[in-house]
Automatic annotation (TrEMBL):
Residues 651-714 form the ATPase F1/V1/A1 complex alpha/beta subunit N-terminal domain. Residues 234-498 form the Chorismate-utilising enzyme C-terminal domain. Keywords: Amino-acid biosynthesis, Aromatic amino acid biosynthesis, Hydrogen ion transport, Ion transport, Lyase, Transport, Tryptophan biosynthesis. It comes from Friedmanniomyces endolithicus. GO terms for biological process: ATP metabolic process; L-tryptophan biosynthetic process; vacuolar acidification. This is V-type proton ATPase subunit B. Residues 1011-1110 form the ATP synthase A/B type C-terminal domain. InterPro entries: ADC_synthase (IPR005801), Anth_synth_I-like (IPR019999), Anth_synth_I_N (IPR006805), Anth_synth_I_PabB (IPR005256), ATP-synt_VA_C (IPR055190), ATPase_a/bsu_AS (IPR020003), ATPase_F1/V1/A1_a/bsu_N (IPR004100), ATPase_F1/V1/A1_a/bsu_nucl-bd (IPR000194). Gene3D superfamilies: 3.40.50.12240, Anthranilate synthase.
């Protein structure tokens, strides 16, 4: 079978990588090989059971969040090549990280971007127990009882893993080829390759085997008791002791815990299979460590090191409230949690502690709070969550970051060291895995072409909601943060709230397997579903009786909070009781998805079921039949019948408020019919209970609250999209206004879209040319980048936007050479390039300028133009950029075009947000803008990018005018955080008569390097750009010096710098509004400027590049857009060469 496996890369490609790597000082010695199959009939659990069937050491990593920013992949591995164990009874009692670092540093992976491998491809997988803190902070060391008898740390080193890609529905088998030494006999590499290929083939054969080896499950014994190591009295005593230390000023907060033990005959993997269904969490893991197993569903990241950016990320979690029984109660409890002064103070303290931990190893200028006090919901509780990150300082590693942050302040306290000392003295026992870290450390990677080595990735979570299963006993541990006003009884109950999901998991899993054993193991799907419902009903009685020993009413009914936040925060989980029967037709809701996941049954294996409840009554049908609106595309239809309301509760600015609405939905489209028969449309901006707040796109003037009829349509706002939209003009709400034919929609897309999943995002590469040298040469834009233009009132940003529309295109490189220089093609007529232009709040004169300019200069045929005028309803501006981006997404991801989106003016958009926020009477944020403006802008800017599996791209150039030229204003400030650079339009240059007045010094394109250089533009591009920046800055300094001391006091070099400054601003930055320069023209002109200086003063350009481009022999390489290149080279260029030669004191012949 090995011969038929499609393994990548091929042996020939591996040989090339090895040969290239051996020329590098730090040659890669691991080559990743992989093969893929469809995951249609495979789940992570079934893969684990097949792969680990005969293994003593194995792991499974999953995540409940598989559609957003995390959790795209699940990882499985078995039979590691090596295991690193530490602890007093394991022969190594010391800090485990140096040994782990030493082991991993022996290996370097060859980076092969074309493989598109997941973030983890092998390395060290395991845990660091809480008690290892004594090696990081020796002051915390105390003599502790080792009740559990497990290693302090354990890491398994894997060279072969299985990764499940949930986004593309495929399974990847990845293994490492160990590169044989150079002195090995010929053929050694081929043998190693064949061995790896066989490993992959064997693994694929195992996965395709229809037999599923289920865990060996012995007879189930029900009704076993829970026991706590300290119980309620002991825990409350700990709380009181710690409160005494808080009063004395020793600490601000501490997190004591209690351990609960529960005998069980369940196989540990059967516990995990049930845990992943009843307590879905961001970090789900199962580690089989031979003598014991670790089963966890952790909500909290400890520390992550991003291999691409070097950022260290930490997620503090503090503040807990139980889940509600209804969505409304959920929201009410979440609001109460947000409003709790005690929880907010505790959370802010832990965020500050996280910032200090991150600052210890990161550049303080890069440390930031990315997210603050966001409510995240889990199966049984809701938490306040924040995110803190920073970029590692030079000389610091991921292991330094781990030491600095471990253990998290959320499981220790503040100040951290003193809190840990007190915890150790109070608890008197080793915590083991609990409150430690579970995760992985990857191998370092080496760029095979440059030899640049990048430290491997690290991703670890805190071992919370985690069970240790050993010798037939499940141990689970939970704690809570103690502060000055903590109530001992409520703190105890919080620990039980946190442990409830795992305790319920054991009970329900036992009951399910016991039922199956009683049925002889031959239950069908319907019986399994019915059994699940029965377990939910019966477990309430079983658990309530068996938890009396812990003095905690697990299943007492919830009482909605009416007083203090603390009472609601400590509320016990809700009752699991049998459904109340109101009629013979009612029945319990089957928990089919959970049961299917538990028993690894694919939904594809079940017959399709009809939905009997989807039929409307006759009145609804008649109402819909009488609707005189044209029938919509079936993709827009909703099974929800339309509901009409005859009165409006009130009007506030652009908003309409309705009360007593049945089930309003956020973003639902609403149709309003005015007394005169005219219709307007709106969207539900806020839905709370039966109250709906609707933003009306056409404004609210003329709306009669008593006579206007409102209809809730049941679906969200969608835009009909088609390639016919190219060359067309629409208003800000998407209606065609150019008198052209009706656009026949090929698809209907939700205008809100969604930001690109980071795991599906490709790094922007290749360049989009604007025809403006200040951008193309100095701040090159990559396809898929988002880079704003910062301007101000009175500056020509609209003219620049129009010029970009006229001149922009793709840059593609040709193989041919001319005069030894690669020549490129500026492909501005490529069928795969188009522009979507969204204008918001522009006056009539500006809108006419755009349309006239596009039409007269021939660029309209590739442009889709959305125009929201200044006298249009302000609220319309909120949807205009979303219409533009939805159109761009259709062009990019369905038609596979490269799309440039220009949005102007984003300041008008933000002013519209402020108006809506004021109408809703929200508490204003900075300078009156809403506090959620950062999030709202992110939903626009983050729609730029490139997606794996699609050839198209979306590049964004949002233009914003800075009020009062203030770059610290919230609009440019927040935009700068989200986007990838900025282009700065400068008033001082504008006053000098320079057009376009782009100041390159404060401008920046963060992704420039991926778009330029050999293979993209020209090999000298980056060096020329760097030298221009340096000389321009020196020229500005020389001008300032001249103003102080006079020109006579300047050195010869300073005078050259002044000449450069004048020619750079007036002859290079400045170019006509209709002058188009290709990137190659821009580079050639840059060399002409740089030849003002002697060769030795161009210290930012390598000698090899100088030798190639600086020499004044022969004629200037012809620019590809120059049709009469020979005449220009023999005439004008020669004259310039003579002038330059004289100026630089030489007789050399110039290229220019």
């Amino acid at each position: 079978m090995a011969a038929n496996v499609a393994v990548r890369p091929s042996l020939e490609e591996v040989s090339k990588i090895v040969d290239a790597g051996r020329k590098l000082p730090n040659a890669p010695n691991l080559i990743p090989l992989c093969a893929s199959v469809s995951s249609e009939f495979l789940t992570p659990s079934s893969i684990y059971l097949k792969v680990a069937a005969n293994s003593k050491l194995s792991f499974l990593f999953e995540s409940a969040a598989t559609t957003e920013t995390i959790g795209r992949h699940s990882f499985i591995g078995a039979d590691p090549r090596k295991t690193l164990i530490s602890g007093s009874s394991h022969g190594y009692e010391a800090d485990p990280l140096p040994r782990l670092d030493e082991e991993l540093s022996q290996y370097r992976i060859a980076s092969i971007p074309s493989l598109r491998l997941p973030p983890m491809t092998g390395g060290a997988i395991g845990y660091v127990g809480y008690d290892c803190v004594k090696y990081f902070e020796p002051k915390t060391k105390r003599p502790l009882k080792d009740v559990l008898g497990v290693p302090e740390s354990l890491f398994m080193l894997f060279d072969t893993i299985v990764a499940v890609d949930h986004f593309f529905q495929k399974v990847m088998v990845i293994t490492y080829l160990h590169v044989p030494p150079k002195d090995e006999p010929e053929g050694a590499l081929g043998k190693a390759y064949d061995s790896c290929k066989k490993t992959i083939a064997d693994m694929l054969r195992t996965l395709k085997d229809p037999h599923l080896p289920l865990p060996p499950q012995g007879p189930i014994k029900l009704d076993q008791e829970y026991t706590s190591n300290i119980g309620r009295p002991g825990y409350e005593a700990h709380v009181n002791r710690l409160k005494g230390h808080i009063v004395a000023g020793d600490i601000i907060q501490a997190v004591p815990s209690q351990r609960i033990a529960r005998p069980t005959s369940l196989h540990s993997f059967n516990i995990y299979r049930h845990l992943r269904t009843v307590n879905p969490s961001p970090y789900l893991f199962y580690l089989d460590c031979e003598d014991f197993q670790i089963v966890g569903a952790s909500p909290e990241l400890l520390v992550k090191a991003d291999q691409d950016t070097g950022r260290v990320i930490n997620h503090p979690i503090a503040g807990t409230v139980t889940r509600g029984t209804t969505p409304e109660e959920d929201q009410r409890l979440a609001d109460t949690l947000r409003a709790s002064l005690k929880d907010r103070a505790e959370h802010v303290m832990l965020v500050d502690l996280a910032r200090n931990d991150v600052n210890r190893v990161c550049d303080p200028l890069t440390t930031r709070v990315d997210q603050l006090m966001v409510v995240q919901r889990f199966s049984h509780v809701q938490h306040l969550v924040s995110e803190v990150s920073g970029v590692l300082r030079k000389g610091k590693t991921r292991f330094d970051a781990f030491r600095s942050i471990f253990p998290a302040g959320t499981v220790s306290g503040a100040p951290k060291v003193r809190a840990m000392e007190l915890i150790a003295e109070l608890e008197g026992e080793k915590r083991g895995v609990y409150a430690g870290a579970v995760g992985y450390f990857g191998y370092n990677t080496v760029d095979s072409s440059t030899g640049e080595e990048t430290e491997g990735a690290m991703d670890t979570c805190i071992a919370l909601r985690t069970m240790l299963v050993k010798e037939g006993v499940a141990y689970l541990q939970a704690g809570g943060g103690i502060v000055f006003d903590s109530d001992p009884g409520e703190e105890y109950e919080e620990t039980m709230n946190k442990a409830a999901a795992n305790m319920r998991c054991i009970e329900q899993a036992e009951r399910l397997h016991w039922e199956e054993q009683q049925a002889g193991g031959k239950l069908g799907t319907e019986e399994m579903v019915g059994m699940q419902n029965g377990v939910e009903e019966r477990n309430g009685k079983h658990l309530e009786a068996r938890c009396v020993a812990l003095d905690y009413p697990f299943y007492s009914p919830i009482t909605a909070p009416t007083s203090t936040p603390r009472s609601s925060r400590r509320s016990p989980p809700h009752t699991v009781a049998s459904p109340k029967t109101s009629s013979s037709s009612s029945s319990p809701t089957p928990l089919l998805p959970a049961v299917l996941a538990l028993f690894d049954i694919s939904s594809a294996q079940l017959p399709s079921l009809g939905n009997k409840d989807s039929v409307h009554d006759g009145d609804d049908k008649d109402k819909m039949a009488k609707d005189d609106k044209p029938a919509a595309d079936p993709r827009m239809m909703s099974v929800t019948p339309r509901i009409r309301y005859n009165t409006i509760g009130g009007v506030n600015g652009p908003l309409v408020i309705l009360e007593n609405v049945k089930f309003p939905r956020f973003n639902e489209i609403v149709s309003l019919t005015l007394p005169d028969g005219t219709e307007r449309s709106g969207q539900v901006l806020e839905a709370r209970g039966s109250r709906a707040v609707v933003q009306v796109f056409e404004g609210t003037s003329g709306i009669d609250v008593k006579k206007t009829k409102v209809e809730f349509t049941g679906h969200s706002l969608k835009l009909g999209v088609s390639e016919d939209m190219l060359g067309r003009i629409f208003d800000g709400s998407g209606r065609a206004i150019d008198k052209g034919p009706k656009v026949l929609a090929e698809d209907y897309l939700d205008i809100n879209g969604s930001p690109i999943n980071p795991y599906a995002r490709l790094y922007p590469e290749e360049m989009i040319s604007t025809g403006i040298s200040a951008i193309d040469t100095m701040n090159s834009i990559a396809r898929g980048q988002k880079i704003p233009i910062f301007s101000a009132a009175g500056l020509p940003h609209n003219e620049i936007a129009a010029q970009i529309c006229r001149q922009s295109g793709l840059v593609q490189l040709q193989k041919e050479q001319q005069d030894g220089v690669n020549k490129g093609v500026h492909d501005d007529h490529d069928d795969n390039f188009s522009i979507v232009f969204g204008a918001m709040g522009v006056n009539l004169e500006t809108s006419r300028f755009f349309t006239r300019d596009f039409e007269e200069n021939g660029s309209m045929e590739r442009v889709t133009l959305f125009l929201n005028l200044a006298n249009d309803p302000t609220i319309e501006r909120i949807i205009t950029p979303r219409l533009a981006l939805t159109t761009a997404e259709y062009y990019a991801y369905q038609l596979e075009k490269h799309v440039l989106v220009i949005l102007t003016d984003m300041t008008s958009y933000c002013d519209a947000l402020r108006e809506v926020s004021a109408a809703r009477e929200e508490v204003p944020g900075r300078r009156g803008y809403p506090g959620y403006m950062y999030t709202d802008l992110s939903t626009i800017y983050e729609r730029a990018g490139r997606v794996e599996g699609r050839n198209g791209s979306i590049t964004q150039i949002p233009i914003l005018t800075m009020p009062n030229d203030d770059i610290t204003h919230p609009i440019p400030d927040l935009t700068g955080y989200i986007t990838e650079g900025q282009i700065f339009v400068d008033r001082q240059l504008h006053n000098k008569g320079v057009y376009p007045p782009i100041n390159v010094l404060p401008s920046l394109s963060r992704l420039m390097k991926s778009a330029i250089g050999e293979g993209h533009t020209r090999a000298d591009h980056s060096d020329v750009s760097n030298q221009l920046y340096a000389k321009y800055a020196i020229g500005r300094d020389a001008a300032s010096m001249k103003a102080v001391v006079g020109e006579d006091a300047l050195s010869d070099e300073d005078k050259l710098s002044l000449e450069f400054l004048e020619r750079f601003e007036k002859g290079y930055i400045a170019q006509g509004a209709y002058e188009k320069r290709s990137i190659y023209d821009g580079l050639d002109q840059a060399w002409e400027l740089l030849r003002i200086y002697p060769k030795e003063l161009l210290n930012r350009i390598p000698k090899k590049v100088l030798d190639k481009y600086y020499q004044r022999q022969g004629k200037k390489p012809e620019s590809k857009d120059t049709k009469d290149g020979e005449e220009q080279g023999n005439g004008e260029a020669a004259t310039n060469g003579e002038q330059n030669g004289e100026q630089n004191g030489g007789g050399e012949e110039s290229l220019i």
